[in-house]
DNA-(apurinic or apyrimidinic site) lyase (Pyricularia oryzae), 480 residues
Amino acid sequence: MACKDAVSRMLPVSLAELCIDTTLRCGQSFRWRKVDDEWHCSLHGRVVSLRQDETHLHYRATWPAGRQVSIKSSVKVKREEEDESIKSEDAAAVKVDEEEDDTEALLLNYFNLHHSLSGMYTHWSDRDANFRSKAPKFTGVRILNQDAWETLVAFICSSNNNIARISQMCHKLCDHYGGEPIATVAGHVYRDFPSPEALAGDGVEAHLRELGFGYRARYIAETARVVARQRPAGWLLSLRNPASFAWGSQRPSPSSPLLKSSSSSLSPPPADTGVKEEQDQKASRSPTSTPPQQQQPDYRTAFAALQELSGVGPKVSDCVCLMGLGWGEAVPLDTHMWTIATRDYGFGGKKAAAAKGSAMSKGMYDAVGEHFRKLWGPQAGWAQSVLFTANLREFSHRLKATAESGVKREDGVGGDDSKPGVVADAVVAPPKQSKKRKTAVSTTRVKVEEDGGSIVATKVEIQETEVTPIRRSKRIRAGG
């Protein structure tokens, strides 16, 4: 079938509600590629391409010629990579009729656009001065509503890893176990993320080690076998927040009140029955399944259940709960968030703040999470994501201008991360003196407004007089 260009459409959304240039590279999803000014990723059988301006999200979907996707062996992948004919995959992409294209509904679901993000930012800023100081530079950071299985595997890969390497691993999983290509877009071949069954086969662990996954290879293979063979069908889906539906459990239209409502800022949208129906249908088809749960799942149940899997500790479990299962109260705590908790919120004392990368005990992990849940409310994980993003090196330039503006001061005094009202000691070292000079120092307290907060600095005036051949430097205590 001849290639037809994918139709480009628009979805009205402001940068305050969604900023894809921040959200898609802040460590939530690891398969988006940016080529020129467009982002590309395979999602549910199509390649989605995105770009954004101040008022709209522009999107298009590239579909394969055939909708059936099958798993293929890694040997076939290798042969395909060696065969230049893979470039002809563009010819297999077709345009889907507008009435059949549900990509708008998919994006509304994927980006959780039924929540009013600006309303949540206002709520968190009112309750937390530290959040208020960071948020203006990081608007539009949303929690993605991702496939639970992909989220689970991606964050198993995150152990002792960085975003770039996690992305490489996720792309390798798709290349070798993700089935037939969907399409080639902007020079890259896209496949769907592999299913648990695709990663549960014999030889998967050894092959992943060859691909550079290290010890994570065993975790992925063992977890895939458990989910595919030992858990009831739909087990991951059964752990999901009933108020946050999974894509594929139902197909809401773009005009659905659930998707169009922007009034829900702090409370989850009303639960639908699609998730339960999907669970019941899958359970009835599986000979090894247990009867569907009569009691709705909660965050704590999901958090504990995930940690029964290989390679899943508290942090990975919270990441899956937040980004793959819709539990907004989940607050993942890694070294970045531990740094924030000790530096900005006083956890662990001065020694903990100085010991970068120090491990948290289980008790401390729970205590920090509970503190943030009380501080930020039922969508605490969303607020956590904003501060996590602000702490990433890739985005440090956004805060640099703020930190360097205003009155010149000692490092760490009155900066973006310091506590309100704290005034540190200032050490004034006068210029090198001649033998017959004495330095007189006077100080004046100066109050400066910066980013809505008061900063007290010390203005120093130095006068020199020829009095005595003694050199001195005086330690001036601010305000003392």
Residues 163-177 form the longest helix (15 residues). The chain has two domains: 8-395, 420-476. Residues 68-75, 84-94, 251-294, 405-480 have pLDDT under 50 and may be disordered. Residues 169 and 212 are 8 Å apart (CA to CA).
